[in-house]
């Protein structure tokens, strides 16, 4: 019996199935004597017995409850103040516990993986019913792992409440696990943690000034390494601000025609309703009012952060409005692929033959496999009737310049990764003298960061010198946005040089943040910082 139903420190007397889903195991302590907890004297004199009913791990798909007969012994030491004491079974059960140690450990591990509510629902199905609050108590009782102190540390911020409060995640880049979570992302908190862990010699971070200051205060001897991905991201944001300011000028440039047009054959977007047009005009009026208000506050001496908080808009929007030389109109809507496109040639030929009835056209193309509605064809025909083609053939589609964000992505990407459309777009905006002068400068910085991050071993010794020459040239290029960007890189030059010569980055921290987000969502956003920290560290 003991072999089939092992109960540590006990002898199993008999097993009873009290219901189709419940098993009861009767057992008692296997030892003939017990030790007094006060004086340590062994005793074999039994005073009385009582029963405990702790829950145990499930068996054969059913719940298991122990009927444990516990003996109470006399203490025969005359000098001891305790007259009687109960025997203990430390391998099986804690004092006053309602579940065995192995059940508590299993439920705690499930709680670490699934959370309180989800874990409680799962354990009911597994024959270990428990409340969600008890699951969380068991998770808090699991001891945190003891790990070797980190030597190479990666850090990044994570959103406790997106847009409001943020914390800091610390990752051991050598061992690939989370070291700790901090409740905020201030320099003081990071510096205090680093002073307690003086083994850190390399710190990989993003471009945050708070992290740079905290690392300098807490670990002044550590080498700081800027993440290369964040460098390219900052480069793209800088290009976007620059192009947003001159986008109105770039739209006036004539398109560069290169070979075949896009396979889209429609002459433009479908005509919009009057309500949609009215909403568009109202939206433009609101954006114009914001644009004028931002410039009024800037002329009054307001800062970007203060304006963002006062007006309730993002700092990126304030920056784009501040850098724009004129009101940035929204880009024209582009024609996108439609289910009607494969049948447009046939529709054009039928219209040229004199068939102008939409219902007849729709029935014709439906027999050929057209899956769309007659309303979509009706809108297209109405559009064509309003703007007839001069020669009776589809006119050449008007090319629309991409937005500042899309152009920034084209400039920051490697030229080898661009398709023919992207190269044609760059040739289009390169007709502008300022773009033609500065785009090679931008491309050189992107190529430098990518070369050091990918090839790793090609002219690494020359990377600091190349960076120094690039900063000298960018600081006197004559464009304020690029000069400001170069000045910011100059302040962080030592960490950037380390990024170009060392293999470390905070990419692992980004991956650990994804796991942290999953844990947050399992708790439905209601877990406090202490519980999130404990679950992340135990899951690592």
Unreliably modeled segments: 259-267, 386-397, 455-459
Estimated structural class:
alpha+beta
The number of helical runs is 20
| Distance linking N and C termini | 39 Å
Number of strands: 13
Shape: extended
Strand content: 15-25%
Helix percentage range: 40-55%
**Average pLDDT figure:** 85
Rg: 35 Å
> In this structure, how is the largest beta sheet organized?
6 strands, mixed
List the helices and strands and how they pair.
Blueprint: E1 10-19, E2 22-29, E3 34-35, E4 42-43, E5 46-52, E6 55-59, E7 62-74, E8 84-86, H1 101-114, H2 116-125, H3 132-141, E9 152-161, E10 165-172, E11 177-182, H4 187-196, E12 202-205, H5 209-218, E13 223-226, H6 228-250, H7 274-299, H8 304-311, H9 315-323, H10 344-352, H11 358-367, H12 374-386, H13 404-412, H14 420-429, H15 433-454, H16 463-474, H17 480-491, H18 493-501, H19 507-522, H20 529-539
Parallel strand pairs: 2-7, 9-12, 12-13
Antiparallel strand pairs: 1-2, 3-4, 5-7, 6-7, 7-8, 9-10, 10-11
Helix pairs in contact: 1-2, 1-3, 2-3, 4-5, 6-9, 6-13, 6-15, 8-9, 11-12, 15-16
Architecture overview:
By secondary structure, the protein is α+β, with helices and mostly antiparallel strands. The protein is 47% helix and 15% strand. The chain has 20 helices and 13 strands. The chain has helices spanning 101-114, 116-125, 132-141, 187-196, 209-218, 228-250, 274-299, 304-311, 315-323, 344-352, 358-367, 374-386, 404-412, 420-429, 433-454, 463-474, 480-491, 493-501, 507-522, 529-539, and strands at 10-19, 22-29, 34-35, 42-43, 46-52, 55-59, 62-74, 84-86, 152-161, 165-172, 177-182, 202-205, 223-226. Strands 1, 2, 5, 6, 7 and 8 form a 6-stranded mixed sheet that branches. Strand 3 and strand 4 form a beta hairpin. Helix 8 (304-311) crosses helix 9, helix 11 crosses helix 12 and helix 15 (433-454) packs antiparallel against helix 16 (463-474).
